[in-house]
């Protein structure tokens, strides 16, 4: 499997969940992987797993806080020192901030935007100069079905995730002529710690989980690997004319009319 052979990919929030699945899938396709993650220990652990599974793959774990432009820049510089360049960036790190708009604290608003939107921009800002100079690059931003639809009680997460799509489209157009593609993926419910924490925050976690499985047409949630497969495609040379797009991975849930 060598769809990403000779490419260097930097994945934010790669210590667990969707980011870790993307890092593994990229490694399985031959890419060198930089795991830029807030929790340095989980980044190291995922890097070790990848090294065990794919002896020929090079990995680098860099403790990174995507809310800080300088931290992301340092991760990109470390990647460039280790591997020469960054060909693929996946802005995956994200957090849920779900609150009532009027009782939400200022701190919650800022935390949500710092990770979910500034974090994406910080990643793009750090890799774009190199990509533009080389005339090649693929940036994949992880949005959400909340990028298009509103679920009551989830404010302000969908505001930031709508912004991710706006940022994706704007940068995609700015740098299209330089052959830098910027696309997004909008996952629906994917079974990760983020989702389990969400279920567990409800008074009846099991009922919350069952309710989630009841709504989607396929009667299940997705798995991180199902998002990773699409990230591989967008990162690869199989998608050279896909730009400013967003691929929804939700088993059809957002197409379903609720009465
Ligand atoms: P997880 O919480 O399982 O993983 C997110 C990872 O991002 C964690 O490793 C976390 O580190 C890291 N992270 C958080 N803040 C920062 C930061 N400031 N800097 C660097 N890394 C950070 O989430 P998922 O895998 O479920 O989600 C990944 C992405 O997918 C997010 O953008 C999310 O919004 C999006 N998404 C997820 C869906 C789902 O159902 N799971 C649905 C739609 C979208 P730490 O563990 O240290 O906090």
In short:
By secondary structure, the chain is α/β, with parallel strands linked by helices. The protein contains eight helices and nine strands. Helix 3 (about 70-85) runs parallel beside helix 4 (about 105-135) and helix 4 packs parallel to helix 5.
Question: What's the structural blueprint in terms of helices and strands?
Answer:
Layout: E1 8-12, H1 17-28, E2 32-37, H2 40-53, E3 59-63, H3 69-83, E4 88-91, E5 98-99, H4 106-134, E6 137-142, E7 155-156, H5 157-175, E8 180-187, H6 193-200, H7 205-214, H8 224-235, E9 246-249
Parallel strand pairs: 1-2, 1-4, 2-3, 4-6, 6-8, 8-9
Antiparallel strand pairs: 5-7
Helix pairs in contact: 1-8, 3-4, 4-5, 6-7
Bound molecules: NADPH dihydro-nicotinamide-adenine-dinucleotide phosphate.
Residues 12-13, 15-19, 37-39, 42, 64-67, 92-95, 115, 119, 142, 144, 187, 189-190, 192-195 line the site of NADPH dihydro-nicotinamide-adenine-dinucleotide phosphate.
Description:
This protein has helices at 17-28, 40-53, 69-83, 106-134, 157-175, 193-200, 205-214, 224-235; strands at residues 8-12, 32-37, 59-63, 88-91, 98-99, 137-142, 155-156, 180-187, 246-249. It is an alpha/beta fold. The mean pLDDT is 97. It is 46% helix and 16% strand. The structure holds NADPH dihydro-nicotinamide-adenine-dinucleotide phosphate. Residues 12-13, 15-19, 37-39, 42, 64-67, 92-95, 115, 119, 142, 144, 187, 189-190, 192-195 line the site of NADPH dihydro-nicotinamide-adenine-dinucleotide phosphate (NDP). NADPH dihydro-nicotinamide-adenine-dinucleotide phosphate is lined by residues 12-13, 15-19, 37-39, 42, 64-67, 92-95, 115, 119, 142, 144, 187, 189-190, 192-195.
